[in-house]
Design brief:
The chain is mainly alpha-helical. It has 2 domains: 79 residues, no CATH class; 61 residues. It contains 3 helices and 3 strands; from the N terminus they run ββαβαα. Strands 1-2-3 form a 3-stranded antiparallel β-sheet. Helix 2 packs antiparallel against helix 3. The structure holds zinc ion. Zinc ion (ZN) binds next to helix 1.
Length: 154
């Protein structure tokens, strides 16, 4: 078994800094996440998410959740983008499916029309004499081809 690491935020195996993807909902310790503003010199006024417990106890160099808000948002956007790509793919597949469905319905309608025409041809043939048969067949086949073409092109 290979050790597959997931980026799931809901996983209890997610521990330590920077391991959480996106906006953290809850620290691994169970404490809610709070949004704070940094007052440090390298990152003045930079917003960050912090474990509520660690923030209340002013912990330092601990393993509780810490994540810059801007980095979390970039993660969220990246996740959304990949989700969007998936949706687009699904939409494409749906469109292809519906197109095939339309084609199928169109073909069925055409088949039905052709069958009805054939019945009419047979009726007409039964009534007409031998000399008119050939002309009738040619005309009706021509009709069928024209209807078929206009249906397929339309
Ligand atoms: Zn915590």
């Amino acid at each position: 078994m290979s050790n597959v690491s997931t980026n799931s935020t809901g996983s209890s195996s997610v521990r330590g800094r920077g391991r959480v993807v996106g906006v953290p909902k809850r620290c691994w310790c169970g404490e809610a996440i709070v949004a704070l503003t940094s007052k440090s010199d390298p990152n003045p006024y930079r917003r960050y998410f912090r474990c509520g417990f660690a923030a209340a106890n002013r912990l330092r160099n601990d393993e509780h959740t810490f994540k810059w808000v801007d980095e979390a948002l970039v993660n969220e956007i990246e996740t959304l983008t990949s989700k969007n790509a998936g949706l687009e793919q699904q939409l494409k597949e749906l469109r292809t499916e519906s197109l095939e469905f339309e084609k199928m319905v169109c073909e069925k309608v055409l088949m039905k029309m052709e069958n009805e025409l054939l019945e009419k041809v047979e009726d007409a043939l039964a009534e007409s004499n031998a000399r008119n048969k050939k002309i009738l067949i040619v005309v009706l086949i021509g009709c069928m081809i024209m209807i078929g073409c206009s249906k397929l092109l339309g």
